[in-house]
Amino acid sequence: MHKPSDDPFLDPETMYKELTPPRPILSPEELRAILDEPATGDAIDPDHYKVGGIETIDYMKAKATPEEFEGYLRLSALKYLSRVGHKHGDHDAARAEEYKKARWFLDRLIRECDP
Predict the structure, then answer these.
(1) Residue 18: its H or E element
(2) At a CB cut-off of 8 Å and minimum separation 6, what does 102 contact?
(3) What's 4's DSSP letter?
(4) Closest CA to 35 of 90, 75, 89, 84
(5) Quick count: other Cβ atoms within 10 Å of Cβ 95?
(6) Do the beta carbons of residue 81 and residue 21 sit within 8 Å?
(7) 77: how many CB neighbours lie within 10 A of its CB?
(8) Alpha carbon distance 24, 21 (integer Å)
(9) Three-state DSSP state, 1
(10) pTM (2 decimals)?
(11) DSSP letters of 31-78?
C-alpha cells in the first residue's frame, strides 16, 4: 500500500529543495523599492498596443466575460512573476522590469474588482 510518506515529493525536505529558488529572493525592502518606482510607460504599456483606436486590453475586456478577463489579468501577473530572472537575465534592472509588468496587471485587476 502506498503511503504519502513513501512519496519523495511529499517529504518536507524534498519539497523545500524543489521549491527553493536557486538565487536569493529579494528582501522586502528591495521589493518595496522596486514596486515604489514609477513604471516606465514604454515597457509596460507600449504604443503598439494602442494601434487601431482602441487599446488591446480594452478590446480583450469587451470580448471576454468578466470572469475570463479577471483570469487573464491574474494569469498575466503570474506569468511575469514566474519569469523574473529567467527571460531577460538576472540583473536588477531586468528583474525590476518584470515586477513592474506584474504590478501593472495586478493594479488593473484591482481596478476591475473595485471600480
Answers:
(1) helix 12-19
(2) 76, 77, 78, 80, 81
(3) G
(4) 84
(5) 21
(6) no
(7) 19
(8) 7
(9) coil
(10) 0.59
(11) HHHHHHSPPPHHHHS-GGGSTTSS-HHHHHHHHS-HHHHHHHHHHHHH
Amino acid identity for residue 113 in this structure: C
All 3 cell numbers of residue 34?
522596486
pLDDT digits 0-9 by tens, 14-49:
655 555 555 556 667 766 666 666 555 556 667 777
CA-to-CA distance for 104 and 98, rounded, in angstroms? 10
Q: What is the tens place of the pLDDT at every residue in 48-106? A: 777 778 888 999 999 999 999 999 999 999 999 998 888 777 778 888 889 999 999 99
How far is it, in rounded angstroms, from Cα 112 to Cα 13?
Answer: 40
Quick one: cell of 40? 516606465
Nearest to 69 by CA among 81, 58, 79: 58
Gyration radius from the chain CA atoms: 18
CB atoms within 10 A of CB 64: 13
